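Side project, low priority. Logging it here so it doesn't get lost.
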Amino acid sequence: MMTTNEIEALKELLASPKKIAIIPHRNPDGDAMGSTLGLYHFLTQKKHDVSVISPNEFPNFLAWMPEAEKVMIFEKNPENCTEKLNQADIIFTLDFNALHRVGDFMQATLEKLEKTFVMIDHHQSPDNYSKFTFSDTGYGSTCEMVYHFIHQLGEENLINKNIATCIYTGIVTDSGSFRFPLTTSTTHRVVADLIDKGVENSKIHNLLFDTSSYNRLQLLGRALQNMKLLPEYKTSYITLSQEELDTFGYAKGDTEGIVNYGLSLKGFDFTAIFIENKEEGLIKISFRSQGAFDVNQFARNHFSGGGHINAAGGKSDLSMEETIKQFIAILASEKKTTDETVLT
């Protein structure tokens, strides 16, 4: 939680109308969009002039969220977005804790600004760019943190159906539909309150998980066909090439959640998906684990990434073939080190 002094200072800052920008990370997911839009609805009720500025497009399966159509896309309109940022009195950064997570162009813009930054985030090792920081890895989602942030401000009476809907969306997506370890009894109490505020939980679940395109199902089928097993490391992995993405008419968000299938195999506690992006010259990687294996540290150490203990991301500028070779070599090296430690 923020300190009492920080909360009092923020209350004072927000007591009169301000120009405010709210920013999620690049390639925003349900938690990033839910937290930014939830905070947007809260602050607009307090008569602030608020803009949500996403670094790039968000997935279509989140486009139904209340006021999602008002989100500005920095990549599509950098001039207007930069103007909004220059005019802002306060900039909230949600669901990330290092400015490089917005991409190089937007990062350079943000680093030039002498503004009051407020960070709300649940990832490890936060940078120190913000004046006010609410950073806690004990939360399963930034959306749950926004709920508690509003309570800390003493403004819980302002949580209406729109705010509750946005916050619920981020909690349900980042908790893996309430099955991940950081889903606490407090999480369920928060969700119960959100449902009391009018959240249509079954409808949201359907919009998020049960509505799909034919192309996305075909892409899922190809991804599962591509799955490889490394039983000696209790590891599975999936690859998707740019050619395969193009063949199945890939749209942003179509690969969301595919990585989790690798953890459904009995006896496997680590999985990854490697997705080629020819335009950026990268292989984008998502890691998932069960139990004590720390994929955040794995991603940081080997693939210029990071995240949580059981969910993280990274990247590689090698080819797909070389990236997979590197991945397997790292697994072999880490297993050898572990075996030697056990023997000694």
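Brief comment: The radius of gyration is 20 Å.
Revisit when time allows.
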